[in-house]
Design brief:
The protein has 514 residues and is α/β, with parallel strands linked by helices. The chain is 32% helix and 18% strand. The strands form five sheets. Strands 2-18-9-1-8-5-6-7 form an eight-stranded mixed sheet, with helices on both faces. α7 packs antiparallel against α8, α7 (166-187) runs parallel beside α10 and α8 (201-213) packs antiparallel against α10. The model is unreliable at 288-321 (pLDDT under 50).
């Protein structure tokens, strides 16, 4: 039997933080949902950054299925340019599309990688990186209503700009949670079947100030009782109040799910992926002027597929590093430890013979795992995954050749040093996120994957999709019974250059790109 379902996303929420807040009595509404239903650990994608994870939430597939691997991608019409990932980059139907095609009404608000928004059977507030002045709400009649009653605030929380004023970042978070809650309540008015409302504030503040909230951070004991620490906990209390408001708006018979796209872990050190490769002899610095003529994406350039087209971004979205390509065998190819081999026949100035591809990859992986920080003697890299070890799919060729994963206490990024201590940021992603359901067959929901949520939501509406990776979560969706096939429609349209420029500026403020 079909049931109305509300999904509330807390981007980056982690049980280490949430359990501490529950013990303090600061999350009574979440605690009530857990008591009435169940809780579990929701495993994110690999890589576990928000753009890949939320795309997996929407589609029910791993990145190799939907094609979103990073925050930027190569322009398919120009190998020397990179463009921000957006909804035009998702190469698979979302559960919003499948539900709409089945005649069910949906609501979607502030889900990352849903700008530009597209027409669904219902209402959508696109998210998360939105150019000023661009339309981001569909349909247009609802956009006018929302603008008149409770305008939705876009962007914000660019934590890279708040290092000297952490309270201003928390103030921004409190304001945005309150304003977005008011917009979400209007979104949930009327008849609908499945709704999703996402708050991104936890992720943003935890990158910058994870040490204040994560009890296992080495600096936590000295920071937790500061004014900033108290303010951060008040932000979570406000999120809990918003959860109660949205739960009431959904109605007493609605099933409410709270989830995060990934968790968070403490970090006290950073390692520069590109600089480590230079120190290990796999790359060599060169002239920035040569870079624009030299770089090519690590996967073969090809059309984006579907009717969602790719568009250029000006050269201000820079390539990963200024390298001398004639002396580079491997380079940092994006966020989260992504590494590409400078392969002949694939890269514009490739140096690695295809016959040496596997050998070079093994050498790079071994050297990274053996590398030690000169100051502490610690290993920044705990694991290196080869592309073919990732979950398979039609877009696996777009994955990096290697994916380095950091050791506990370490973060990997595109910094100008091989290693350095870090107090800002002091938190980074881990795969283990949260899931809570207000009505479940078991108090322990286990450890489902984020790709399991789309088929769970479809199953609760009597639908199934056999062309995706995920499967319904038994404790929430039951056995499923006789389910109808869900259609796989294709939405479309994309961005212009000025919009891409604004998105890129926002992503820089979030520390996601250089």
């Amino acid at each position: 039997m079909r049931r109305r379902v509300l999904v509330v996303g807390w981007d980056g929420a982690d049980w280490e933080i949430v359990d501490d807040l529950l013990a303090r009595g600061l999350l009574p509404n979440l605690e009530a949902l857990i008591r009435e239903g169940g809780r579990g650990t929701l495993l994110s994608t690999v890589p576990s950054h928000s753009w890949a994870a939320w795309s997996s939430f929407l589609t029910g597939s791993h990145p190799a299925g939907h094609g979103v691997w990073d925050f930027v991608q190569r322009d398919p019409t120009d190998a020397d340019r990179r463009i921000p990932v957006s909804s035009t980059s998702i190469r698979q139907a979302t559960f919003l599309d499948r539900l709409s095609a089945a005649g069910l009404e949906v609501r979607a608000a502030n889900i990352p990688v849903t700008f530009p928004p597209w027409e669904v059977n219902g209402r959508m507030i696109g998210g998360v990186a939105i150019p000023r002045g661009a339309p981001f709400v569909t349909p247009s009649a609802f956009a006018e209503e929302l603008g008149a009653r409770a305008p939705f605030p876009i962007n914000g929380l660019e934590w890279m700009h708040h290092r000297d004023a952490p309270e201003s970042l928390v103030g921004d978070a409190l304001r945005l949670v309150e304003q977005r809650s008011a917009s979400f309540e209007i979104l949930l008015e009327g008849r609908w079947d499945v709704a999703v409302c996402v708050f991104v504030a936890p992720d943003r503040v935890q990158h910058a100030m994870g040490a204040y909230l994560l009890p296992t951070h080495p600096a936590h004991a000295g920071l937790r009782q500061t004014q900033v620490g108290e303010s951060l906990r008040s932000m979570y209390a406000l999120l809990d109040e918003a959860l109660a408001r949205l739960h009431r708006a959904a109605g007493p018979d609605a099933l409410t799910i709270v989830m995060s796209d990934h968790g968070f872990r403490p970090i006290a050190h950073l390692a520069g992926t590109g600089k480590m490769l230079e120190a290990l002899g796999f790359a060599s610095s060169g002239s920035r002027a040569r870079l624009g003529r030299s770089l090519r994406r690590w996967a073969p350039t090809r059309a984006l597929g579907k009717t969602r087209a790719g568009y250029r971004l000006k050269q201000r979205v820079r390539a990963p590093a200024a390298l001398d390509w004639s002396r580079t065998a491997a380079y940092s190819a994006g966020s989260g430890g992504a590494i590409a081999i400078n392969l002949e026949g694939r890269e514009i100035h490739g140096t690695v013979d295809p016959g040496d591809y596997d050998r070079v990859r093994r050498e790079v992986a071994g050297a990274l795992l053996a590398f030690r920080d000169p100051q502490s003697g610690e290993a920044p890299v705990a694991q290196v995954t080869f592309r073919e070890e990732l979950p398979a799919g039609p877009h696996l060729d777009l994955a990096p050749d290697l994916l380095a994963r950091p050791a506990p206490g370490w973060g990997l990024g595109n910094i100008d040093h091989v290693t350095q201590p870090s107090t800002w940021p002091s938190g980074d992603h881990r795969r283990e996120g949260i899931i809570v359901c207000s009505d479940a067959a078991a108090a322990d929901l286990g450890t489902p994957s984020i790709v399991d949520l789309a088929p769970t939501l479809l199953s609760l509406q009597g639908l199934r999709a056999d062309d995706i990776d995920g499967r319904p979560i038994p404790a929430i969706a039951g056995t499923g019974g006789d389910l109808a096939d869900a259609a796989s429609p294709t939405p479309g349209d994309g961005l212009g250059r000025s919009e891409e420029d604004e998105i890129a500026r926002h992503l820089r403020g979030l520390g996601y790109i250089e």
